[in-house]
Fold this protein.
Amino acid sequence: MASVPFDQLDGHIWMNGEFVKWADAKVHVLTHGLHYASAVFEGERAYGGEIFKLTEHTERLHESARLLGFKIPYSVAEIDGACRELLVKQGFSDAYVRPIAWRGSEMMGVSAQSNRINCAIAIWQWPSYFDPEQKLKGIRLDLAEYRRPDPRTAPSKSKAAGLYMICTLSKHAAEAKGYADALMLDWRGQVAEATGANVFFVKDGELHTPTPDCFLDGITRRTVIELARRRGLKINERVIMPEELDGFSECFLTGTAAEVTPVSEVGPYRFTPGEISATLMNDYAAEVQPKRVAAE
């Protein structure tokens, strides 16, 4: 938890095309995004002064907005450029990057076709999402009460603010019991994801991961799948039922914030962080570092 509230951090935030002082980046209490969750966002990390897969994240931000019925008034290239410039302006090399777009306060009510679409980017230093010592041993997950919704009831392919309400509730409930996070099922009772990260399992040297048909196919998830393929590992994207967890030897989470995090428990199920989890954790750490061209 931050020792200083986030609205009191130092520096600047890029907001609607210009850099403003951190304390001055404000929205009105009647902002549509606050009342009706008409907001989309991204979570990105900078390593060694470069933002990992920046354009891929920005493209997903635009697609998330499209799925929520609005268009961001800044191009992918403009947002990419603002992210890079802000990283330098903040003076950070390793940092967390949070672009967000939302409907403003011109109309208040469910209908908001005339609202301005706002866009902002904040960058701050954020270490590992989970406690580093706990992460090495494998974190403990509770089984969440809430489930990922049927795609016919929510725009599940959008990284939309409203879809995280049940994630906050589930993570709070898990932490109250002493767990680090929670594993969520989907509306069918199938294994889905953690509250902010995708999940992988290991059995007989092969990876198994749920098919992302009602939750985000994470950029980190796709990166780890590619790293596993480079290692010659077989990846099984499929339906996974919770009772199958008893047959897996390893488990780990993937996400921009979580990176690659081994798991030791999911409710009553136990796992031992092993060679495959460690290998992919190290491979991911190497992958995100900027590739420097050797001087001739």
Q: What stands out?
A: The chain has a mean pLDDT of 95. Residues 76-90 form the longest helix (15 residues). Helices lie at 32-36, 54-67, 76-90, 132-137, 165-176, 219-230, 275-287.
